[in-house]
């Protein structure tokens, strides 16, 4: 009975109906919330003693870097769900995360590079954190290309999901890269086990920007998954009635 | 934030130019992604309706 309920709730039709109704308000809400987080961080916090105003990139770079990794983990979970329970919706969501993940990872690399110019005196360094994030970006692109290269999309979903689970090994490497190797990139300023190394005046808008950015990106994933469902289910009778 | 601080970031002083570059790129990326996805969804719905 639980399995039946789970299958019904997780059907593309049920998901699409919910996403169609709440997707755009959800995205708009978090978009506005993120803008207010940026306004707080940009205009209502003092400049850093050493970095001046350039530290304010933190309100864009940190949420993007965090989400670049989280999205891959979410993609791995949905891929595992697809491989274990054969839920089509899980494969659709997994596939629709990949382009958003690539965009977010690109932005994390870009914002980090720009931040590096005034802070490190260079926009690029082949250090462990930056290189492993670049590998993450290439993996996202590789997954998108792999899926697009298959005519048989069921087969594509299987290969895609397996590759995502293999690629998951890169996430702890990114996370621990600053501890395992001597890197130009600083170690984590916010951890679960120790006191944050950032002043609360800068920390609170940072936390606010991270939370609102998470919502914003999940809003984009809802849109992206709607598009994926329409593409993949276009010959189903329920789609013709929307 | 006081008036001097606001003028400092708005006038791109003290490396503020890098912040504005990142903000512009972020909103270009976010805006174009939202527009593109909305357009694709609209187009897909239109095609489905035409076929039906």
Please give a structural write-up:
The complex is a heterodimer of chains A (242) and B (52). In chain A, 77% of the residues lie in helices and 0% in strands. Chain A is built from nine helices and no strands. In chain A, helix 3 packs across helix 6, helix 4 (88-120) packs antiparallel against helix 5 (128-149) and helix 5 (128-149) runs antiparallel to helix 7. Chain A starts with a helix and ends with a helix. The model of chain A has no long low-confidence stretch (mean pLDDT 92). By secondary structure, chain B is an all-alpha fold. Chain B has a domain at 17-51. The longest helix of chain B has 36 residues, at 16-51. Chains A and B meet through helix 2, helix 4 and helix 8 of A and helix 1 and helix 2 of B.
What order do the helices and strands come in, and which of them pair?
The complex is a heterodimer of chains A (242) and B (52).
Chain A: H1 2-9, H2 12-43, H3 58-85, H4 88-120, H5 128-149, H6 153-167, H7 170-180, H8 200-232, H9 237-240
Chain B: H1 3-10, H2 16-51
Proportion of β residues of chain B? under 5%
Mind telling me the C-alpha Rg of chain B?
Answer: 20 Å
Count structural domains of chain A.
Answer: 1
How many helical stretches of chain B? 2
Q: What is the share of helical residues of chain B?
A: over 70%
Number of strands of chain B: 0
> Can you tell me the overall shape of chain A?
globular
The chain-level mean pLDDT of chain B equals 87
What is the SS-derived class of chain B? mainly alpha
Major sheet size, sense and barrel closure of chain B:
none
End-to-end gap of chain B: 58 Å
Query: Strand content of the residues of chain A, in percent?
Result: under 5%
Q: What's the count of strands of chain A?
A: 0
Query: Using only CA atoms, what is the Rg of chain A?
Result: 20 Å
- Assign a percent range to the helix content of chain A: over 70%
Give the gist of this structure.
Chain A has 242 residues and is mostly helical.
